[in-house]
Design brief:
Elements (H helix, E strand, L loop, with lengths): L7 H4 L27 H8 L14 H14 L3 E5 L2 H12 L5 E5 L4 H15 L2 E5 L4 H7 L4 E7 L11 H10 L3 E5 L4 H4 L9 E5 L13 E5 L1 H15 L5 H11 L2 H20 L4 E5 L9 H7 L6 E6 L4 H10 L4 E2 L9 E3 L2 H7 L2 H6 L6 E5 L5 H12 L3
Helix pairs in contact: 3-10, 4-9, 13-16
Length: 394
Amino acid sequence: MSKKKYQDQTLVNHDQITDQYGAVVPPIYQNSLFTFKSWEEIDKAFDHKADAYIYSRLMNPTARVAEDKIAGLCNGGKAKLCASGIAAITSAVLHCVKANDHIITIRNIYGPTNSFLSTYLKNKLNVELTYVDGRDVQEFEDAIQSNTTLIYLESPASLTFELQDLRSICHIAKNRKIKTVIDNTWASPIFQKPLEMGVDIEVHSVSKYIGGHSDLVAGVIVSSEEIMNQIITAEHELLGAKIAPFEAWLILRSLRTLPIRMKALMQNAMEVAKYLESHPKIARVNYPGLESFDQYKLAQKQMTGCGSLLSFELKTDHIGSIKAFVNSLELFSLGVSWGGHDSLVYAPVISYLKELSPDQFSAMGINAGLIRISVGLESPKDLKEDLEKALLNI
């Protein structure tokens, strides 16, 4: 393909294929290393490690095709696939901080990310962490210290899906020479382009929408070519969180349908969210696509669509009733992930009360009756009927 900027659905469906047989699908380069014809050739490769095929821990042709597509979708200079979403997150964060630095983040972030920022970095590197609500831009500016080097964002946030004003926050960060990292998994590269709004580094759990079939675990980091070359030859190479060629090939398969899957998932999620919003046994629905969502205007401003992960509060905090509701669902399988073709349900109270005190749980703005669902590609009529039947237990 030429370097012309194509629309997303065109970009993901055309490959830069060098296979000599004209294969319509890029081959899987299932090899650990690449050989050279001369001393001079390998010597030159080591001078350009971020782009050279030397060893598959660092670079692999199958992975590179997928990485180039993802970079294009995000309007970034370069992307690097990792073994998991948390591998992408920790590599991006470590690129931005050193011992005794300070990070600002929001309260409702992905649990393992929160553990990494609040516990691991504190214990290993004495990195300070300040939480803000995230909805008020002034909070970020007020939290900045002389040693602040990173603002970590997740918009929309986990569980309750509050947004952050990305353009305004990035303006503040750039004026203070502070890096910004965002977990953009919820919106996907189809519905939100954070790098265009000034974010320095974008990360995704590829296991979710980009993978989309609940059959792979991976992550990706996207940024400018300069930043990515630094990450590739430092955090990525030295921490060794590489993607396997077969997983990269599966990601290529998934990317071809990502735009149409996201549109279908959004349509299903909107129909289910509107149904839940009108149900007498539901206290509140958290979904940025609903006009009742208190940041709906901001969602319309910085996203072109919404993912299919949402949450709602049952009008009960009785654990027995909540268990009965979850156990009665047939089409929503009980599981911790999301973003695939299949619908899933999870009650955060299952794990959160094992990890947090009741006061900490309440401080997150959630209660025992909060239910998270990932709406899949099934018929929304069937999904609504499944929910209706389960809600008889409340």
